[in-house]
Amino acid sequence: MVNAEIEHMERMLSRLKLTAIRDQLDNLLEEAGRKELNLREALAFLCEAEIARKDQRRITMGLSIAKFPHVRTLEAFDFDAQPSVDARQVRELATCRWVANGDTLLLLGPPGVGKTHLAVALGREAITQGYSVLFCSAGPLVASLAKAATEGRLEERLLHYTKPKLLIVDELGYLPFEPNAAHLFFQLVSRRYERGSVLLTSNRSVGEWGEVFGDPVVATAILDRLLHHSHVITIRGESYRLREKKRSGLLRPDAMTSKRE
Ligand code: ADP
Ligand code: MG
User: According to the model, what pLDDT value does residue 247 have?
Assistant: First the structure.
């Protein structure tokens, strides 16, 4: 192609926002030629390259919007080390059917057993599959709702937490002593009810939530909605990190405690 033709081609691809094809056109055409693709196959090959780039962009953007505290993946989760977690159930959850249905997922268990790890990993899967996700810790979440309420911006704040298809609320069980915490959380759960999914992690059993919320009546109303369409994974056992340390001989077995790492 002469220069003018190349420029014309690039302008058309830019206008169509086919930037992956535009940026790699020579390489892609060369490869299509090498593979002796016919026109139809070559067109499919170019579309695949464009889609791959767009998917990658969407995932990168989704991950930055989700505000995960760190990178944790299902591949990095050691199922052998955690026999109380059913790998098959987690793989089924990784299909994100529960997110499509707007179900709730509860991950319960003592500190250090991998609740946040699984929450982040499943959140990443949801993003990969095109769902919007927001990760937050229960304490700051309730504190931000309480602050918004005093400033007359509660509606706006509730909307912020209602929009994502999946809201991950980590560490329920260490709520701040906001007098209004239970009511604020109830409002959020009601808004999301049957609209979007909630993934909650907690070191407290569901039976203790009355105490967590400081109000058994509101806690029952919250649970009523959350448990309506829900999946529960209860993780037992000892903290993963302490276990690893014990295994490597850094800790004596009798030094094991259940305190937070
Ligand atoms: P929790 O949220 O239950 O307190 P975390 O998910 O924060 O526990 O786990 C503590 C640390 O141990 C994290 O760095 C996490 O990645 C790691 N971890 C926990 N369980 C596993 C596991 N089964 N396989 C790999 N890493 C794990
Ligand atoms: Mg955690």
Answer: 76
Q: Which pLDDT value is given to residue 261?
A: 39
Query: Cα–Cα distance between 61 and 127 in angstroms, integer?
Result: 9
Task: State residue 253's pLDDT score.
Answer: 56
CA distance 113 to 85: 10
pLDDT value of position 216: 87
Q: How far apart are CA 105 and CA 16, in angstroms?
A: 41
Separation CA 215–CA 204 (nearest Å): 15
Q: Tell me, what amino acid is at 43?
A: L
Phi, psi for residue 51 in degrees, rounded to 5: -65, -40
- Model confidence over 155-196: pLDDT tens digits? 999 999 999 999 999 999 876 667 788 999 999 999 998 789
Ligand 1 atom index nearest CA of 85: 23
Count of residues in the chain: 261
pLDDT of residue 215: 86
Amino acid making up residue 81: A
What proportion of the chain, given as a percentage, has pLDDT over 90? 79
Atom of ligand 1 nearest to the CA of 170: 2
Give, for ligand 1, the residue of 74, 117, 244 to mutate: max count of ligand atoms closer than 8 Å to Cβ: 117
82 Cβ closer than 6 Å to some ligand 1 atom: yes
Interval between CA 114 and ligand 1 midpoint (Å): 3
CA distance 69 to 35: 44
| 27 token code pair | 């390489």
